[in-house]
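---------- Forwarded message ----------

FYI, see the SulP family sulfate permease record below. Original note from H. follows.
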Amino acid sequence: MTPLERQSVWRTLKSVRLLKTELLAGLVVSLALIPEVIAFTVIAGVDPRVGIFASFTMSVVIAFTGGRPAMITAAAGAVALVVAPLVRTHGVEYLFPAVILAGIIQILLAALGVAKLLRFIPRQVMIGFVNGLAISIFLAQMPELVDVPWAVYPLVAAGIAIVYLFPKLTTAVPAPLVAIAVLTAVTVLAKIAVPTVGEKGELPESLPVFTLPTVPLDLNTLRIIAPFAVAVAFVGLLESLLTAKLVDDITDTPSNKTRESWAQGAANVVTGFFGGICGCAMIGQTMIGVKVSGGRTRISTLFAGVFMLLLAVVFGDVVAQIPMAALVAVMVVVSAATFNWHSIRPSTLRMMPKSETFVMLITVALTVATGNLAIGVGAGILTAMVLFANRVAHFVTVERSVDEGTAVYTVTGELFFASSNDLYTQFSYAQDPERIVIDLGASHVWDASTVAALDSVSDKYAGYGKHVEIRGLNEPSARFRDRLSGHLD
């Protein structure tokens, strides 16, 4: 914990108002976590208790070790999708060592500085990530609104109204908590039969205990779990780091992404030993805690996990009566609050380059279509790279002049694989005189593709019995070319 974070925590602990905000934020998040975590365990094909135990252990570990205060980490849908085939084909016994191995891989990635790669994610990919997330959160509520009693719809509408309007009266209590309490009271007292949290799955009746994997710890087991562990490590880390960046922007505070990386790994390792499923940052719940409920410190993260286990184990009968309509209402509001509406305004779209808008749309489309934020972001980054390379490649110009029996080609621009591939075609090999000068004083050689292209140009002229002189290279480019030239065939 940094000195600034320690000051923030101590200031919160000494202030009744701030501490109440953090505790209530944790409580609201825990209530929203329970049914969603249960749903994710169904996707993964494991007992609901596996997800609830994981959410508790991950929240507690991250609260003390994480690099992004107030971010919620628990059993998440993105990684549940990854491990579902493992559970289906080899059983839940292989899940826990896979979770431990995924955590170890994340710690190794943190040591290698993978978090620093976050700065290479373009802004439009981040916007697409946020918008795709918001749409995914909204669509995830649709099953709760199909083939349900008619009473669900007015309850959802009432919940949305409470979340929006209650803050106009007071902000002393989070509006989502009020909505959940009011709708639960109404359905219980009026005996309105609607789907409840209890119908999602059986809640645990005991605390998680430390257990060792029961599968053989040999190469065969490693062969089985390694592909899933690697996938979980990358998907979980990407989603967590992007969520951390999003919270940074919302709270206007920085976070330590490297620390968050190894903390996510540590949380998964601990979770695997306590019989939990893998997890990562949960963006929807983080938005509930940070954007809707005002959580800002590690206290809200810690108590989200503590309250979740306490509610599930001790107050399971009460929690089971919460109508799903109340949680749907909260998540719909979260979805609307998360979406970047400015990005789709006609004025913004007219002003924005079409390539930038295309990157955002690709990110959104694949995120929603696959249900996997990592795939959407990866596709967005790849699209942005291709469009950027294509745009930069067109900035390279080649000008030819002939003076006293010498053809001089002046190359201007950055030379790399996209621009240098066309370089070979820019010369008049047959028409040029015997002496050719290629002036690279206004350019820079970035990669082996460029060196190979220059070698090809020289060889082509040599075939005509002509001599090529390459001059003007800056020192780094000259060293790079000297090292590779003639060795790329």
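H. also flagged this: The chain has a mean pLDDT of 89.
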